[in-house]
Amino acid sequence: MPDNIASVSLIHADGDPAGFAEEIGASFRTCGFAIVSDHGVTADLIEQAWAKTAEFFALPEAVKRRYHIEGGGGARGYTPFGVEVAKDATEHDLKEFWHVGRSLPEGHRFAGLMAPNIWPEEVEGFRETFTALYSALESSGLRILTAIATYLGLSPDFFDDTVEDGNSVLRLIHYPPVPEDAPGVRAAAHEDINTITLLLGAEEAGLELLDANGNWLPVKPGEGELAVNIGDMLQRLTNHVLPSTTHRVVNPPPERRDHSRYSMPFFLHFRPDYLIGTLPGCVSEDRPSRYPEPITAHDYLLERLREINLV
Question: Is the pTM of this model over 0.85?
Answer without folding.
Answer: yes
